[in-house]
Amino acid sequence: MTALPPRASSLPLLAVTGLEQSFGGVMALAGVSFQVAEGLIYAVIGPNGAGKTTLFNALCGFYQPSAGSIRFADRELLGLPPYRIAARGVARTFQNLQLFFNMTVIENVMVGCHLRAKTHLFAAALRLPGIRRQEHQLRAWAMEALELCELADRAGQPASALPYGLMKRVEIARALAAKPRLLLLDEPAAGLNDTETLALRDLIARIRDSGVTVLLVEHHMPLVMGVSDRLLVLDYGSVLAEGTPADIQNDARVVAAYLGGAVSYAV
Amino acid sequence: MRLAGFYAFAAAVALLPALFPDNYFVVVIGASAGLNVILAVGLNLLMGYAGQISLGHAAFFGVGAYASAILTTRFGWPSLLALAAGLLAAGLLAWGFARPILRLRGHYLAMATLGFGVIAHVVMVQATHWTGGPDGLAGIPPLNVLGWRVEGDLQWYGVIMAAMLLAVWLSLNLVDSQVGRALRAVHGSEFAAQMMGVDTARAKTQAFVVSALFAAFAGSLFAHQQAFVSPDSFNLAVSVELVTMVVLGGLASTFGAVCGAIALTLLQQGLVVFEDYEMLVHGALLMAVMIFMPQGLFVGLTQAVRRLGSALVGSKPPAAA
């Protein structure tokens, strides 16, 4: 699969300015600003506790930052509840699995399609004629996402019966089923073996090539350096550096704070 | 087929009085079990699927019953109109309470719903002018469905079973739809459900209101069937019994709730022979089921039947379903 060149756009898809979030006096985010152009894989790296997951949770509306702004497609996200942010076209996966273990794989992914079809409670209870067609459509959309993630053969299994690596991929399929413009991946490679990580790398590239902008938090440096178009380095809640993978690997401050010594991450 | 289990159940319900004609046990206990099934299936939507507990569900059962009792005896309303008013009242009450109550979780939600149930019971006892107080309201006219007056045990069996099958059908439809999946998602991970665009507060409110409507529906039928209501039928013990039915049958399964409701109704009838030790045996049986069938009666029994089946056939591995 050939990677498309990053699309040039005058307006960034996501523009975060001066974002601040504190927890009882600890500044988890101390004025973070960055911009993500549409169509890129944009990685956020940094040591543990640097504020990466806090940043994700603030972007999704789970935290209420004390200052700053989050503009997505030129509209403010700050202050919206998570389900409204999802409706604007933001989807995510979770560092700690948040699958619906009380459902099958395809049902999980069908919940991902929640925003693409409205169902009225009474229409559903009475199984009005439109519902059957809609169920068919939702199932087809969910299968599309499962096929992209190479999970089609697992569709009918209970989500709880899958091995860990596949559970993480179901989360990605579920997020993709929402047809997001921006996909947030929170440590998708954590707990995966080398083969699975390579497959993940291809999958992330495929997602980007399908037109979805990807924001990636990840510790696996070969993966990050190999797949990302640009990187943001956080340290103690502040931006330490921003640039292409080559820029970052040659940045003396980043090497000192995080990467630890001159290492080349060719993949 | 999606509704195969439902059709089998409906056939069994229709055949029972034909197989056992003029059997008091079948039609009277059957009708009583039917009302419990409506209550349990409704509560299961809230507890089993949406994962929210309610220890005050008898209150909504009471709202439906008292709405029918008061409106038909004191105001001479037609019974179907009174039933509709009962549904409306229970729905509005549930909707009004849902937002503040469903912000709570776990023990706190249990306490809040318990308080709600207790308050509702106190109102039934104290508002003597309307409810007749502890003595209750008697002389409720028979249910009148477009000119047909429902009278006699067999007719009541038919009406309650039809209502029960409607409740089961609605529940099966709801669970297997986008609305039902959103509810189950709230139970599975509220965090992720929100991120999939599910308005979780709204989903929980819907579940609460729908389960209240099921309970009020059963309550109206109960009032007409008994021709008498009193607060004792809607106290805390009844709420706890409803929760027991849902848990006993197996959470998050419509037929589990059906099984639990039928089992508990039969148990209460069957244990009469133990006289003073009735409650002791009752409690011991419930404990045994929870220890040996933690997923509930429905899953436990179907697995037992499957094991028995494969044991009879030989040591062949079970065929893929």
Topology:
The complex is a heterodimer of chains A (267) and B (321).
Chain A: E1 14-23, E2 26-36, E3 41-45, H1 52-59, E4 67-72, E5 75-76, H2 82-87, E6 90-92, H3 105-112, H4 121-125, H5 129-148, H6 164-176, E7 182-186, H7 194-209, E8 213-217, H8 221-227, E9 230-235, E10 238-243, H9 245-249, H10 252-259
Parallel strand pairs in A: 3-8, 3-9, 6-7, 7-8
Antiparallel strand pairs in A: 1-2, 1-4, 4-5, 9-10
Chain B: H1 4-19, H2 24-49, H3 58-74, H4 79-101, H5 106-126, H6 128-131, E1 137-138, E2 144-145, E3 148-149, H7 153-175, H8 178-188, H9 190-195, H10 200-226, E4 228-229, H11 236-249, H12 254-270, H13 278-292, H14 297-313
Antiparallel strand pairs in B: 1-4, 2-3
Tell me what you see in this structure.
The complex is a heterodimer of chains A (267) and B (321). Chain A has two domains: 1-89 and 180-267, Rossmann fold, CATH 3.40.50.300; 102-179, no CATH class. Chain A has helices at residues 52-59, 82-87, 105-112, 121-125, 129-148, 164-176, 194-209, 221-227, 245-249, 252-259; strands spanning 14-23, 26-36, 41-45, 67-72, 75-76, 90-92, 182-186, 213-217, 230-235, 238-243. In chain A, the strands form two sheets. Chain A has a six-stranded mixed β-sheet with strand order 6-7-8-3-9-10, sandwiched between helices. Chain A has a four-stranded antiparallel β-sheet with strand order 2-1-4-5, with helices on one face. Chain A is an alpha/beta fold and 267 residues long. Chain A has ten helices and ten strands. In chain B, a hairpin with a 2-residue loop joins strand 2 (144-145) and strand 3. In chain B, helix 2 (24-49) packs across helix 12 and helix 11 crosses helix 12. Chain B has helices at 4-19, 24-49, 58-74, 79-101, 106-126, 128-131, 153-175, 178-188, 190-195, 200-226, 236-249, 254-270, 278-292, 297-313; strands at 137-138, 144-145, 148-149, 228-229. Chain B is mostly helical and 321 residues long. Chain B is globular, with a radius of gyration of 20 Å. Chains A and B meet through helix 2, helix 3, helix 4 and helix 5 of A and helix 7, helix 8, helix 9 and helix 10 of B.
